[in-house]
């Protein structure tokens, strides 16, 4: 007996489909798909969330000195002339950063194997490349999703049957984070 559903696709297509849907589920919180796909997505998503819950507090806070560009009142970089060239002025600032422990770093890299990069486009700037933001889904898993499920032992997703799809009568479901 197979340990997973083949979903009528080659292995590379199946892997890409599942990665895409898991990424969408974690980004949006819920998606609508077929029942068979939802059951496969659930396995992957719950594994990622469990990993995030286990490693959510496994980091050190470190203070580092960082060079930051000085900015004027308009938010533009301050430039000064040095040897006939315009050069940006930098200030040294103390910053606190989170440094992952080795196990959390490993978890982060395992999550990155599954999740695709996500760009968020605001509704006002639709169609403009300038206004897009890269969403760090791994950081979202550690900071937003994991604390929500810290006291829960599994069962992070819920599958709700919606009904049959009109075209091929496949059972459609809503899979969402609980």
Automatic annotation (TrEMBL):
Top-level division of the source organism's lineage: Bacteria
Assembly and binders: Part of the 50S ribosomal subunit. Contacts protein L32.
Family per record: Belongs to the bacterial ribosomal protein bL17 family.
Keyword Ribosomal protein in annotation: yes
Protein name: Large ribosomal subunit protein bL17
Any Gene Ontology CC annotation: ribosome
Record's keyword terms, sorted: Ribonucleoprotein, Ribosomal protein
